[in-house]
Amino acid sequence: MQDARRSDDPSIPQGIWERDLKKADWKNVRKLCWEILETRSKDLQIAVWLTESLLHLHAFAGLAQGLKLLMGLCEQFWDSLYPEISEEDIEARISPIIWMNEKLSLKLKLISLTMPQKTPDAVSYSFADWENAEKLEKLASKDKKLYDRAVSDGKVTRAKFLGSVMFTPAEFYRKQSEALSSCLSFSDALCRLLDARCGKQSPSLKQFIDILSDIRTLSDMFLEEKNGKETPEDTAFSEDTEISEENDAPKAKISSVTIRNRADAYRILSAVADYLLIHEPHSPTPYLVNRAVSWGNMTLTELLQELVQEESKLRQIFQLLGLKGPSTQ
């Protein structure tokens, strides 16, 4: 079982002992866990490992199945469940739940939140990728050189992530939203059940539930963006669809885009940049457009400070434009 679950970390250098990296065999883990639970023992640790395998095999829909199973075991077999409770000490019994909260919760962040279709260049990204992309965006306003270096090193940017979202079908997010809602519902029910069984010694699932909630919030945001909005993978060919002279791919009419306010204008610019990033990743255009969008909330003074690094030239520009320099503000 442990060998089937084990996988090598590709980020750790192997030195002279280089060998093929071992990957976890989650199908075998699932098979072994089912066999043990059905024929040998009602074991909470085995059930948690089964839940882990279902997460890896079927994402959040699989996790919901595992959580439902955990609830059923705790509800129906608590008195005979393994690990056993010894002399009112339930530490061994609840240790699998503690592991789930501390360790399995981190694996939730690695499940794909995008599933781009109809474009060979796009890749799937996870919640961990989104968190890193958000950190990278904050870095852009603090240290542009470091940001540019990270981008050139292939780090996931917000634009890349949203480009992948753009080519992910809305149906993917509808199913994901349902699965995440089930996961949260079963998690809350499991917490209440454990509180009733364990009293003050009940294990916490706060980290697990908090991460699930954050993932659902992000996933629902993508679904809301897609609802009522035509996207490359959802748009069917119709009489109102024009044909691109370049590659005969369906293209939405420009006249159908309504700009109601400033936020809409910047959102459309971001969408254009995301599209170009997927189809013309080597072109500087999408990066320049995204940079322009990032300047949208800056004052003229802030923008000049970012664009002009030499202080003497910056003062000359401020004087020419009749602006107060940053030192006098």
Report on the architecture of this protein:
It is a single chain. This protein is mainly α and 329 residues long. Among the domains are: 2-12 and 19-122 and 167-226; 298-329, no CATH class. It has helices at residues 2-5, 26-39, 44-76, 91-108, 127-142, 144-152, 158-166, 170-198, 206-226, 262-279, 285-294, 300-307, 311-321, and strands at 242-243, 250-251. A two-stranded antiparallel ribbon has the order 1-2. It starts with a helix and ends in an 8-residue tail after the last helix. Residues 230-256 have low confidence and may be disordered.
What's this model, at a glance?
The protein has 329 residues and is mainly alpha-helical. It is built from 13 helices and 2 strands. Among the domains are: 2-12 and 19-122 and 167-226; 298-329, no CATH class.
